[in-house]
Structure formats: C-alpha cells, structure tokens
Amino acid sequence: MEILIIGIGGIAGALSRYAIGKYLSRIAFLSFPTATFLINVTGSFFLGLLAMNMVQHPTGGLIEKYGFQVGFLGAYTTFSTFTYESIRLIEEGEWMIFFLYTAGSTIAGLVACLIGISLKFI
Fold first, then answer.
1. pLDDT score of 122 more than 60
2. 75 or 28: which carries more pLDDT confidence?
3. Quick check: 112 and 44 in contact, CB under 8 A?
4. From the annotation, which residues make up the binding site?
5. In this predicted structure, what is the pLDDT of residue 10?
6. Where does Na(+) bind (predicted)?
C-alpha cells in the first residue's frame, strides 16, 4: 500500500513541479532560475510543516507520511536541477546570479522550513 501511495503522491508532485515551472518560465527574471527557487523554498516550507505535524501526531496516516512527504515533496522539489542550474550560471559567467541563487536558495529554504516547523497548527 505504501508504494501505491508514494507513486500517486510522486505523480502529483512531478506534475505540479512541471506546471509551475512552465508557468514561471514565461515570467522569469533575467537568468535567475525562479521556478526551481520557488519550488524548492515552498517544498521546504511544506516539509517543515508536515514533519512537525508528524512529531505532534505520531500516529499520522500513511497518506501524509508517504503520499505527501516522500511522494509529492520528493518529486516536487529538486536538488539535482538546483545544482545543474548553478553550474550553468557559472559556465555563463553569471557569478552574481549564481551567488544569489545558491545562497538565497539555501537561506530561504532553511527559513521556509523553520516557518513551517514553527506553525504547529495542526
């Protein structure tokens, strides 16, 4: 049952990432990888929120743990694209955008996760 739940969540996460990326690619700022940045930051927020909910309610369901945390967020967020885009920025000589992207992604992701953890509303 866990595999099926992860698979359904993964499909939803991958399709969400694709749709958001496609939409944001039309309104992207310069060569800054806006879509990956926003996807990874929002994914960090939701993982923090869901992880804290699992701590508060350890008997949480399979759908939350496997469907959302492993499946959806695993397919939605993307470290590999982040690293690839970072290397491309270096190759293109976009050093300022590279530093903004890598430092900004790390800091914003940590802050977003911390905000999610601190909400504790469920």
1. no
2. 75
3. yes
4. 74, 77
5. 96
6. 74, 77
DSSP structural state of residue 27: S
* Contact present, 89 and 24 (Cβ < 8 Å): no
Q: What is the pLDDT of residue 28?
A: 66
Q: Give the E-state strand segments of 1-122 in sequence order.
A: none
pLDDT digits (tens, 9 = 90+) for 30-68: 678 999 999 999 999 999 998 887 777 666 677 788 889
At 27, give phi and psi (nearest 5°).
Answer: -120, 20
Q: Rounded to an integer, what is the distance from CA 101 to the centroid of its chain?
A: 14
Residues in Cβ contact with 91 at an 8 Å cutoff, skipping those fewer than 6 apart: none
Percent of the chain with pLDDT over 90: 66
Between CA 75 and CA 5 the distance in angstroms is: 13
Annotated binding site for Na(+): 74, 77
The answer to whether 57 touches 30, Cβ cutoff 8 Å, is: no
Residues 87 and 33 sit within 8 Å (Cβ to Cβ):
no
Chain centre distance of CA 23? 16
